[in-house]
Q: What sequence folds into this?
């Protein structure tokens, strides 16, 4: 797997997690219910945080990923 | 931020993310990296901020509080046909904004208060859906005069009222040593609603 493919794969994972979080956020804003805030914070927030952290980690530690991959080859 | 604008922003963010994750080699160019950063970090961060603000604002609405069935008797007590009931007198005469009636007099309640209060709010949701909520419900702390004084303090009708005119009494009221509820005792009479008469708002009143 080339470095570009690794980045693309991690970007896809981060993107899908963030999209899931945003979809939960949209539903919670449309759904007028006491639990909508909980859904927004606990479910949407978790997906968003997971996606954003995945993306940021990929930005901060890209060399580590390439290093590990190079070693495994 | 209006809900429609927030929803639009969320939609645009989703579209941007789809572009970022589907276009091959987007992270190669500087512009692509910037787009990815905006789509995956800046916009979602803003969405969390504005979404939280929107949810907190929404939770101040009377309809939000009354959406839990345990709160419904307290909501009904706002429409009692007896002006000696303080909440009803305030609600019916629009002395408080009707769409924010609960929040106006309970400003430190659960989500609006400190971190400790926010955890209480989470516990309420847990008890409501999974456990057994207390019946009747009670305030965690004695009602604070601050809730009355943020409107009444300085008002001529309050300051010059005979019962308040004694300087010592006024001092005690303003320092919360003497509760307003000591004299104004008739508040939410939720347990006796079946025996009381209700006021019917005019049909063109949307609240």
A:
């Amino acid at each position: 797997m080339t470095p570009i493919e690794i980045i693309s794969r991690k970007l896809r994972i981060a993107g899908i997690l963030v999209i899931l979080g945003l979809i939960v956020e949209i539903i919670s804003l449309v759904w007028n219910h006491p639990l909508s805030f909980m859904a927004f914070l606990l479910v949407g927030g978790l997906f968003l945080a997971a996606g954003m952290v995945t993306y940021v980690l990929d930005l901060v530690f890209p060399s580590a990923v390439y290093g590990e991959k190079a070693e495994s080859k | 931020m209006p809900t429609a604008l927030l929803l639009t922003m969320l939609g645009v963010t989703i579209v941007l993310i789809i572009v970022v994750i589907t276009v091959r080699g987007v992270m190669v160019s500087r512009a692509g990296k910037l787009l990815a950063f905006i789509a995956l970090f800046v916009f979602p961060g803003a969405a969390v901020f504005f979404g939280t603000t929107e949810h907190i604002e929404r939770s101040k609405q009377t309809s939000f509080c009354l959406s839990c069935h345990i709160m419904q008797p307290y909501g009904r007590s706002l429409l009692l046909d007896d002006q000696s009931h303080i909440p009803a007198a305030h609600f019916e005469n629009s002395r408080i904004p009707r769409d924010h009636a609960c929040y106006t007099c309970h400003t430190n309640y659960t989500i609006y208060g400190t971190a400790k209060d926010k955890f209480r709010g989470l516990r309420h949701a847990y008890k409501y859906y999974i456990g057994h909520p207390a019946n009747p419900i009670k305030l965690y702390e004695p009602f604070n005069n601050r809730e009355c004084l943020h409107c009444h303090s300085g008002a001529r009708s309050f300051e010059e009222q005979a019962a308040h005119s004694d300087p010592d009494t006024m001092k005690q009221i303003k320092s919360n040593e003497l509760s307003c509820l000591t004299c104004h005792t008739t508040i939410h009479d939720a347990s006796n609603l079946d025996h009381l008469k209700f006021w019917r708002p005019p049909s063109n009143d949307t609240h």
